[in-house]
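worker-03 picked up job from queue 'complexes'. Input manifest follows; three sequence lines, order preserved.
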Amino acid sequence: MLAHYGYKDGSGDYFIIIDTDKCDGCGKCVEACAYGVMELIEDEFDIEDGSMAAVTEEHRKKIKYSCGPCKPISGERKLPCVLACSPKAISHSW
Amino acid sequence: MSKQSKEFWRWREYRHTVPEMDWHDAKIVTAGVDIGSVGSKSVIMLDGKLHAYAAIRTGGVSEETAIRVLNWALDETGLQTKNVHCIVGTGYGRVNVPFAKRTITEIACHARGAHYIYGPTVRTVLDIGGQDCKAIRCDEKGKVISFLMNDKCAAGTGRGLEVFADLIRVPIAELGKASLNVEKEPAPVSNTCVIFAKAESVALLRQGWEKEKVAAAYHLAMVNRIIDLLTKVGVEKDFVVTGGVANNIGIISRLEKNLGIKPLEPNVDPILAGAMGAALFAKALYEKQIGLR
Amino acid sequence: MITAGVDVGAKYVKVVLLEDGRKVLKRANGIVGFDILKSATEVFEKALLEAGLNHDRISRVTATGMGRKAIHKKHPLNAGEIVPEVIADAKGAYHLLPAVKTIIDVGAEEGRGVKVGEGGKVKDFVINERCAAGAGTFIETMARALEVGVEDMGPLALKATKAIPMNAQCCVFAESEVVTLIHSKVTKEDISKAIHDAMAGRIASMVLRIGVEKEVVLIGGVARNPGFLPPLKKELNTEITIPEHPQYVGAFGASLLAFETEGK
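worker-03 finished. Artifact:
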């Protein structure tokens, strides 16, 4: 499943996309993010148990701002959450 | 605003029992409770078939709302909470459903519920609730493949329509129909922000536009916004719309026109899709528990 | 030579009349009505009248602001040039404070961050538009929910005793949140602070995308709200200067640009 967390507003598209089939619930993205954007949640999409990475409720509505420091308009951008994910389950839409 | 002013945004609460069904004949009795930001819904199922439901406005305390909506759905069925084998909670306030065995996100429940209501050909579910809008892609089993949810802002949600109903003083249930009462579709107002759209609507009303024409411009903006979100996950047939806004003909007909895809017509109130999905998950959970699967 | 800068904002028209690219003769403002050209012309004529000048004394008019196109080469205002807000902001702010490197401009419907390079040139900018939560309209809408005047919001916030977080990122949802806070007996002072903190947080995160370098100036109508500066300073962890007449910086910049064009 591709989980798109974020929103779209007048200024653009802001989604962190997590491929839950690839995500193994290791939690490295949670440690990598200095702003507390990521968290591990219980799999609430089916009756089976398991955990998966997600964007916290708090940050879903403002990731344009929360992720801002990792995305300077000019200069190199390195996204710690994406780099930390070995199964390559995380991508950003902007 | 004075306390006496009419509340144009307020919709009626309701319940229903499907006749000629008796829970005594059922092997598995399950319930789904969907606590939304604006409306709360409960569905009772007998062996996975819809038996009764209720829809009420969400109150200040989610636990109380959950109890009230479940009890109301059980009313007239002869059932009591203790006769229900398994209850699953979903929706924005799902963690506050006191007797739920488990919680499942409303995204999974809407996909599952839509699969039940419309059949296995459903591939895209658009759920427009009171405070959010979700675009969901699912497979032939009703399992979520991809989803996107916008709950950051009121544009493209039921709340946006409530604000507008109050502004032009037309009851929310009649708003969609009123918006279709125009000769030609006007240009839309701002589709990214309800506050700006409202300000633009006020300006249009002052310029002498008919209420209906302004409503058309507002609905069109909302539809553009929703299509914008929907195309992000992609639209594949069959396409269905669930949630409270599915009952607004002004939104549905414009979606069909501008998207070029006709949404399937529901045989039950699409506001119940989430609660239905939850009741179906409850059945699966109970079957797993007693070793049936 | 007298030139004019007209800044047609979302809510107000601001006019600056400038003599020889140095001396401000007059500042005037007025609300933007349905007819933008008419509103702008009225403010412009008010400025002329108060300055005791005839229209033909004005050598050139340059316009900026989101409604600038409505007055571009249109009688009777006849704005010869139109420039984007960020250009006018940079010009005006640089003239007032040559050491400026970062401009934060918060108007009624838009928030902007401008990175200023040598000679007042725009190096980079970021705009948060079409969302009321990132602009002055947010505070105005919240004032209505709190049932206080918009001009009282800042002073109220300064009297707050507690910092309360606000979760809603949307004006409409924030209105409901404010009502909930009122019902749970949170004081108007604390709610007002929460409103300003939330807004400052959004503006700060936006500006951080272009990087914040000293000197930092805050301009636009929201700069006149005393409740906004403290949380913004805290979020950005820097000193921020507010020039005199912060709401006129764009119009002032436009009048300077008109002078430079005319002088060529």
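worker-03 released lock.
The first strand of chain B starts at residue 14 and ends at 17.
DSSP finds eight helices and ten strands in chain B.
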